[in-house]
What does this fold into?
Amino acid sequence: MKILSESTVGTANGKIILIGEHAVVHGMPAIALPFEAAQVTVEIEPKNGETTVESSYFTGKLSEVPATLYNFVEALKAVCKYLNQSYEGLKIKVNSLIPSERGMGSSAAVASALVRSIFSYFNKELTKERLFEFVSISEKIAHGNPSGLDALIVSNDHSYYFIKGETPEKLSIDLPGFLIAADTGFKGQTKEAVSDVGQLLRDSKGKTSELIHSIGRLTKKAKRAIEDKDPRFLGELLTKAHEHLTALTVSSEQLDQLVQVALESGALGAKLTGGGRGGCMIALAEKKDEALKIAEKLEKAGAKQTWIHSLGEDAND
Ligand code: MEV
It folds into this structure.
């Protein structure tokens, strides 16, 4: 029996796609890792009457949320239906460490934190498989044709080598290297970018298909570079992937500029991460002091925020 003054909190990490975004929608592999700096928490407490949502994006009644949050509403309804509980009488507070639509998986992370908090609110056990199912419902609404990669990472908190439709392979990343992530400050446009790459594939099949396959080959090599603990080779692959993503029309002026600044500041490689057309980029450095210097240059060049993430073993679990 629920005691009515209790509140529960669900937490989820965002994700960084190291390499393979967009191509992964079309059957190629991708490598992604959880990113604690993009953490989301969802707190639920009981209230009288209609459910309300509080977030930096929208605050008000559940029945009045904007269309951009329909994925959230549908995930809430689906979970409550599954648990045979009412979705009314809840106060839901969403807190995110980074703004939404930055290519860090925040929509999937919000869904994951929401599902975790509802299960906990109703004192129910939640398996990773069930969590993945509900996050996938939300992601289909948010992104139209998602590969399932974001849902996988935010439900499992591990790095993966992922191919759509195949059993995901856990990938332990432990190499001497630091990722620098930088936010352009501009919203990304994952849904439009995914849809435009699909259109490009229909309009100019040969060239687009070659770019997608080429990203796939880079990703396979990136897996080898990780296994061989070779940050220099990995860096080269990241930069090549960025060139291909630019050719697929999913970069932006700001992303290209930050990639350029990172490379000129000594990064081993740099690329956009996630859906693109805004959002974030990543760069790779071998040593922490180099990573700090690159982050500083990126901020001077206009990055709104930067983070440094170790690829050493302590970063895996
Ligand atoms: C978005 O985070 C990554 C994309 O590859 C889309 C997807 O995998 O669903 C652009």
